[in-house]
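Shipment paperwork, digital attachment
Item: protein structure file
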Amino acid sequence: MATIQPTILTWARETAGLSLDDAAHALDLNPARGRTGGERLTALEAGEEEPSRPLLLKMVKIYRRPLLVFYLAEPPKTGDRGQDFRTLPGQEQKYDPDLDALVRDIKVRQGIIRSVLEDTDPVPLDFIGSVTIEVPIEKLSALIAKRLDFSVEHFRSWKTPDEAFTYLRAKIEAAGVFVLLLGNLGSHHTNIPVEIFRGFALADPIAPMIVINDGDARAAWSFTALHELVHLWLGATGISGGDPADGVEQYCNDVAGEILLPLKELRKFPIPQNFSRKSFEATIAAVSTFAAFHQVSRAMVSYKLLRAEMIPKEVWSELNRHFREQWLQFKQQQSEKQKAADGGPNYYVVRRHRVGPAILGLVRRSLDEGTITYTKASRVLGVKPRNVEPLLAMRGSL
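Attachment content:
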């Protein structure tokens, strides 16, 4: 059997974001022969010992790396995940091991989907990378709405933000873009906070993809979807999240905001004469009502008010802080309710909602035509091979 290079073991652990002691604990490396688990792992990474096959398979799972990677002669180069739009030019990318693993998973799924589509001689999507940020915001927002056949009035007619998002998602997927809701690596233990990432865009003329962190508020999903769609129009692959850090992020925010809430409508928002504590409370109530009517998040409304210079930055920061605290409290309450309730959402319904109708339909057709294996279908759907058919047969979504 090929020898495992010690540098691979160190690289795999470090890119998983684990210290020696944490990794040893996760790998069940217990104290033995007068050495702690961490010391035993140090010996393995120094090349003094060779990992057993069972231990190597544990590393595959804990470090979230395929088995073949451990047999490489040297650590592979960092994969191209596109630009990190959360940082300013020249700054280092914000590394998070779970996010890095999620991006790798998304790229594998995209690769499988692309290979399936290429067998059908697809026509490349002409809007991918068709514009620059020099295009006026109003012009691009109108162009995107027209291409999607998107009606903001229809969007607002739905009873809930989730229903409104389902309408928008259907329009985006009809245009040839796959939209996924993924905020972890398959379990709540790996939930990635929205402060780390809100969305991700993979610009590709055959199989473009948008990933939305489903750990965010549902009222924010539509804005994120359009924000990432603008990235595709720009031909820009990368990660979004946090405060807009550069011109591209701000531009994507402005275009997405103009589609969902045109500036001419925002001008109708009642702004108080002076921002006292009493008027601030009134502003919170007004933003909440305004956001609910337009089926958008309160954070989006406050951001647009800032960009339109209708409120000062200090008020915007305070509004953001207040809305964030309320959202965290709501999530905590929902988590406690779910624990108290018997069971939870149906496994298959949740996963159907995450991958979306476009991918479900493509996988179903490909299996029927014999152009994809159940192993590859399971990778695309994010389930085990034995769960593929039950998932595809299930009806309904969250």
